[in-house]
Amino acid sequence: MECIANIKSFGGQQQRYTHWSESNQCTMTFSIYLPENTDANNPKPVLYWLSGLTCNDENFVQKAGAQQYANQHNIIIVCPDTSPRGDGVADDEQGAWDFGLGAGFYVDATQSPWSQHYKMYSYVTQELPELIEKHFAATSQRAISGHSMGGHGALTIALRNPERYSSVSAFAPICSPIECDWGQKALGLYIGDNQQTWHPYDTCSLIKNASTNPFTSKLPILVDQGDADNFLDEQLRTPLLETALSNSAINDATIRMQPGYDHSYFFIASFIEEHIAFHASKFKR
């Protein structure tokens, strides 16, 4: 790893690193916030934040204002990039903003040419946590959160691995990629035309099967969605998530419709304190 930035913030350190990723077969970048007094004698639990379409590892760091709350609650925050990048990494031929670079959708691609590098699911669930817990004073306790495409990633990752995450939250998540244009395009190109193979990356589909894993029914879930979000009806499809949860075995899930809020980081900054406190309350100290 190479540290490319180290800035003091609210008593802790906001850092940025590059490293070679075996999962994605390219150099990846992540940002990490370390609260003050984070050392071998004071390891901290980790909140992983997954950003949305067109973002990288710095959007949340610079816009959400999360550092002060992470420091208050003694939580490390790790922000990976949203896709592989670099020479030789495939991108959308038309340069579309909703696919390719900046739009990895947190899946493991199986279709050429994407399968060579686009392994964001494996990177977030396996490679990155191993790296963080090896090189930083981090405990094995993890939570996960995200926004939009990253909210989709956070929910699907936690629902597929509920024994590995203390809690999950999301801001304006893509609730059912199978049922929206963004998801149909991404999953079709990354994974193929057989929609049966899409279900492991669809939150609503995973919730319908929650009873098959005893950890899933106990997974604490918090979702915030602004009712003035211009993507709500066509892309995010929050009512589908509400229906799925109401018919599921999951007993600790809250969806909050926030009046007047849109899809921007102003929305995230307004409620990030509550999300960090939510995750902090689920960690075992």
Structure explained in plain terms:
With 285 residues, this protein is of the alpha/beta class. It has a single domain, classed as Alpha/Beta hydrolase fold, catalytic domain (Rossmann fold, 3-Layer(aba) Sandwich), CATH 3.40.50.1820. The chain is built from 10 helices and 9 strands. Strands 1-2-3-5-4-6-7-8-9 form a 9-stranded mixed beta sheet, sandwiched between helices. β1 and β2 form a beta hairpin. The protein is globular. The model has no long low-confidence stretch (mean pLDDT 96).
Write the layout of secondary structure elements.
Layout: E1 2-9, E2 12-21, E3 26-34, E4 44-50, H1 59-63, H2 67-73, E5 76-80, H3 120-135, E6 138-147, H4 149-160, E7 168-171, H5 181-191, H6 203-208, H7 214-217, E8 221-226, H8 232-236, H9 238-246, E9 253-258, H10 265-282
Parallel strand pairs: 4-5, 4-6, 6-7, 7-8, 8-9
Antiparallel strand pairs: 1-2, 2-3, 3-5
Helical content stands at 25-40%
Secondary-structure element pattern, one letter each? EEEEHHEHEHEHHHEHHEH
CATH 4th-level superfamily: Alpha/Beta hydrolase fold, catalytic domain
Gyration radius, rounded: 18 Å
User: Number of helical runs?
Assistant: 10
Major sheet attributes: 9 strands, mixed
CATH class: Alpha Beta
Write the CATH fold name. Rossmann fold
> Looking across the biggest beta sheet, what order are the strands in?
1-2-3-5-4-6-7-8-9
Structural class: alpha/beta
